[in-house]
Design goal:
It is a single chain. The protein is α+β, with helices and mostly antiparallel strands. It has one helix spanning about 75-95, and strands at about 1-5, 5-10, 15-30, 35-40, 55-60. The protein has one domain. The chain has 1 helix and 5 strands; from the N terminus they run βββββα. The chain has a 5-stranded antiparallel beta sheet, with no helix packed on it. Strand 2 and strand 3 form a beta hairpin. It is globular. The model has no long low-confidence stretch (mean pLDDT about 90).
Length: about 100
Amino acid sequence: MEHGDNHITVIDDEGNEQLCEILFTFESDEFNKSYVLYYPVGAEEDENGEIQIYASSFTPGDEEGQLQPIETEEEWDMIEEVLDAFLAEEEEEEEK
């Protein structure tokens, strides 16, 4: 993972680089991890007007910036709750 201001370059298992925009990052005391939610730059919306958002854990300050996969269903549930709250807040801001 390479860092830009609001972008990261994600390298997949086959060595392909994908520029992604960071939606937001947060820390979880429950899992003692930091998380990043992101999506590919230029991603197209599906038929519902949504884009696929990816989530990974990471170690802040790690020079190599390795993204780690989400390991448990409990982590996914927590991430979905945080994302839902974020999206609801964004929607409220747009309505103002």
